[in-house]
Amino acid sequence: MLLYRIALWLAFPLVWLYLLKRSRKQPEYRLNWAERLGYYSVDIIQSNLHGDTRPIWLHAVSVGEMRAAQPIIRALQQRYPTIPLLLTCMTPTGRATAHELYGAASGINATIVFLPYDYPSAIRRFLQRFNPRLGLIIDTEIWPYCISKCQRAGIPLVLANARMSQKSLNGYLKIAPLFRRVMPKFAAVLAQTQQDAARLTQMGAKDVKVMGNVKFDNQLDPLLIAQGHAWKNNLARKTLLLASSRDGEEALVLQALGALPADTLLIIVPRHPQRFDAVAALLESKGLSYIRRSHWQGEALTQQVLLGDSMGEMVAWYSAADVTIMGGSILKFGSQNLIEAAACGSPVIIGPSTYNFAQASSEAIAAGAAWQGEDATAVCADALRVLNDPARQQQMGQAGVAFSLAHRGATEKLLQTVKVWIQ
């Protein structure tokens, strides 16, 4: 821990330089810096954390994790309506997503703040201010001082919905003594799959259980589904979706697809909002006619490409798509999660890089809900084949819905594990 502490303090000036750099594209990174050191306003502390009731604390680092946590948060509120919820994240987009999903209009009205960086004094201030009865870390966020100080304060901390790719494990094992010292301090570790459990055990976690993936428990917003279906009807064209694309993937897909016929619309939804303008510039450089979602009201289009420059509408995009190419899988990003696309009944085509969701991807392929290509050329070729084969579209779509329904139940396993610390 001494070397870790030294590294933290050496990095301290770089943290603020990083935030300033990110704020050039996302001004929100200039806000709430005090919270990143564990200082919170009285208004925040008193807003929803009423009386002497200690909150249930849930941490989800950014947008994807915050959305994945929906079944957990809604189940906690339903089962423990008198206990307040404290939600933390690390990114402005994660915070905005939390307010969108769990703010006052949602009926949940959780307290939403940044989790401090992993400095001992900052974590101590956070725990003293909020004094949670239980902490749930969603996915795989491992902060040594946070884990250690929760244990010392008698706050059970649970690593839930945890995944660990071989690539991530190899990185952690470079400083194995540090993580093998702190991993046993979790009150419980609940992994998505047996493979994840084995890798977490290799890191030093004790008695790891498999809970499945809570994303299978996510209830799709019927309004977004209806919106997507309305878009599809109005467009009256074949729709090919490149979902949650990462840097460099749009160019590869555009090259591999070539000139699309007039009856086909390409929808591109970049993973990160700060890349919307860059993708628009790419489309312009290719001479492609396009329209942004922010300038489109759902009517029929003559443009070749629709650029999804919006947040919180992925379910609508999946519902509008005849075929989905899953972003993050064409280049070495490990893929984005295909579960929601499958649940919407959209046939999914994935590229070679799936280490973040290896088991979900392989099971979806085995179920007939997805197909995998070895590169952008193969991915796009099969996407076009499915796009022009209504029978295969229907078969893959039905398989996707059945696949997603068959894997539900992770949220209940989690709640059964943690109830001993909530009562």
Could you explain the architecture of this structure?
The protein has 423 residues and is of the alpha/beta class. It has two domains: 24-213 and 408-422, Rossmann fold (3-Layer(aba) Sandwich); 222-406, 3-Layer(aba) Sandwich (Rossmann fold). The protein is built from 19 helices and 14 strands. The strands form two sheets. The chain has a seven-stranded parallel sheet, sandwiched between helices. Strands 10-11-9-8-12-13-14 form a seven-stranded parallel sheet, with helices on both faces. Helix 7 (144-152) links the parallel strand 4 (134-138) and strand 5 (157-162). Helix 6 packs across helix 7 (144-152), helix 11 crosses helix 14 and helix 12 crosses helix 17. The mean pLDDT is 93.
What is the structure about, briefly put?
The strands form two sheets. This protein has a seven-stranded parallel β-sheet with strand order 3-2-1-4-5-6-7, with helices on both faces. It has a seven-stranded parallel β-sheet with strand order 10-11-9-8-12-13-14, sandwiched between helices.
| Low-confidence runs of at least 5 consecutive residues | none
How does the helix and strand content classify structurally? alpha/beta
CATH architecture of the largest domain: 3-Layer(aba) Sandwich
Helix content: 40-55%
Tally the beta strands: 14
Query: What shape does the CA trace take?
Result: globular
